[in-house]
Amino acid sequence: MDSNQQNTRPLFAYRKFWAHRFGPAPFLPMSRAEMESLGWDSCDIILVTGDAYIDHPSFGMALIGRLLEAQGFRVGIICQPDWNAAVDFKKLGKPNLFYGVTAGNMDSMVNRYTADRKIRSDDAYTPNGEPNKRPDHAVTVYAQRCREAFPGCNVVIGSIEASLRRIAHYDYWSDKVRRSVLPDSKADLLVFGNAERAIVEIAHRLARGEKISEIRDLRGTAFMVPRGWLPSAEWEAMDSSSVDTPGPLVKHADPYAMEGDLKNEQNSRLTVEGNAHPVRIVSRTERLAARQDKRAHTAIRLPSYEQVKDDPVLYAHASRTFHLESNPGNARALIQGHGERDVWLNPPPIPLSTEELDGVYELPYARRPHPAYGDAKIPAWEMIRFSVNIMRGCFGGCTFCSITEHEGRIIQSRSEDSVIREIEEMRDKTPGFTGVVSDLGGPTANMFHLTCKDPKIESACRRLSCVYPDICENMNTDHSKLISLYRKARSLKGVKKVLIGSGLRYDLAVRSPEYIKELVTHHVGGYLKIAPEHTEERPLSKMMKPGIGSYDRFKQLFDRFSREAGKEQYLIPYFIAAHPGTEDEDMLNLALWLKKNNFRLDQVQTFIPTPMAMATTMYHSERNPLRKVTRSSEQVGTVRNGRQRKLHKAFLRYHDPANWPLLREALKEMGRADLIGNGKKQLIPAWQPAGTGGVPAASTGNNRRTGPVVRASVQRQLRSRKK
């Protein structure tokens, strides 16, 4: 990606907008009174979000707001507005440049509904956890209200909801394929992925008087164009709107092709219509440059919305093509028809450098909720107030997870010094700090500064995962920088303990026993959460997760180093029920494994098909997009009906008497009645406690890497083992 990096303007190299003379605000203003106290007559940019405003870099709107403020713009923020009218969207006046609209840190549908499509009883991003403070499909609704408030005003949408809905996508809650969020929201631009580069460039170009309809060249942006539009004459579109080509009259380029597959293109034609031409020797450098230039001016036309909504196979094909074009080093633009217009997606953004990421996280955040909330408790803030984000992105590629689709596979890490400075600032400024850092992490706890050994290989790679089916030989798995960070963090004055709360990638950790020893000896508070997700190869192969053998190797080292440290510590594994590719037998085997290993899970995860995830494609299309998609390609079994989903959930909570009637019935149907009884090798008893029959299976936790853990189960395990 070196050439791309050279053409990318550093994030903090722009000349500041004239309003920088006002200086940073204590908090981004949420009212006219606050604007007046800052001496503002208007806002240049107004951010609209479905979350409460917490001025901390873990919350997207605060991060984007402070970044735009650092560029010299006056930024206001409207949080959780009443979406039934446009009144709340007018309270800060008309923005001089644009509205920036987001649903918040989570997709609004995932935030509001459980895996069973039931409305959640609380919202972690709302004061006092109050539910129903944002609409369904919040990005679309908020953008429409902005249009009503000030017709003609520029509207830019972003965040994980917009990012994961930028093309036609399966929507689990309506059980249908929906259009891209762009035509529904009527936004001018969609910013996807990590938005810093694009949003800063948009703001400065609009400030210079450029029309938003003319901004068509920014990575990480999507927009609507007339059908068949191309940026210039040097561009060409490659058709990938079909998986069936009857009669190969013309051989089209393979949309799934790796770079190495293009060798045949090097064969030169020596004659044209019988006329000889001199042969010019073309150097490898020239050939690669020509190929790269052609790739940079090629867009892939995906099957249209109208096609994918009616044809699951074409949906799977579009999904696979989309995911193969996700590496910023080689991704091509994508086009998808929606009626008479196209959605155009530019390639993903270039990741931030360490220096740029440090700058973003060291902006003047207040590191607490806006004073307007008074003494109200905001659960999401309580969860992260004493944690520090050290990196972003994930190269794991788990098919059920949205992190890779949103943040990308290339790890962006902060410097050690920057992280240490934030810990010191948290220690000195955050009310209630007792000396315990609750987490140093991110999407994954132990991918800090892990990158491909060769930038050229990284820029050409089209693998969907760097660690599945095995860890790539080009992946650096050296944890020494993370070990150094841990040691410096816990040696800081006023810091008593540094815990690791983010999920651990244990297949990477076993490559560095020194890291496991450091972690177990100093940074585990009695338990450590990891996510095997399953024990059986059938579902694991559809999750792109390692086999349970990796877990066993990690557990051996974990237990060994815990004993050497004189500590009694336990692993808390996460598992997913009802994932595509899972059969009843797989869940039964998982339940038997749980019982054998004395695990009694208080909370379980049931698969939620989130927009654009590969596992969601499997759920909707019943095809496997991890391989080339054809009409006869591999089919994937899915768990759809309510009873089977409850059954898979019940297997994970085999110890709950409320689940025993359902499990007994299922075991008999499976021919495994031998597992009903009071023996040690039997799963559930034959007797039923009074008042427990017929109760539905236990409620699920959130299908997120940061889902809560009920500590009671850990305490029970500790007590039982001490006995």
The residue ranges in which pLDDT falls below 50 over 5 or more consecutive positions are 1-6, 245-252, 259-274, 695-723
User: What's the number of structural domains?
Assistant: 4
CATH top level of the largest domain is Alpha Beta
Structural class: alpha/beta
Strand order of the largest sheet: 3-1-4-5-8-9-15-14-13-10
Largest sheet composition: 10 strands, mixed
- Could you please say which CATH topology of the largest domain applies here? Rossmann fold
* Strand count: 25
In whole angstroms, how far apart are the ends?
A: 57 Å
Helix content: 25-40%
How large a portion of the residues is in β-strands, by DSSP E?
5-15%
Mean pLDDT: 90
Number of helical elements: 26
* Estimated radius of gyration: 26 Å
User: In CATH, what is the homologous superfamily of the largest domain?
Assistant: Response regulator
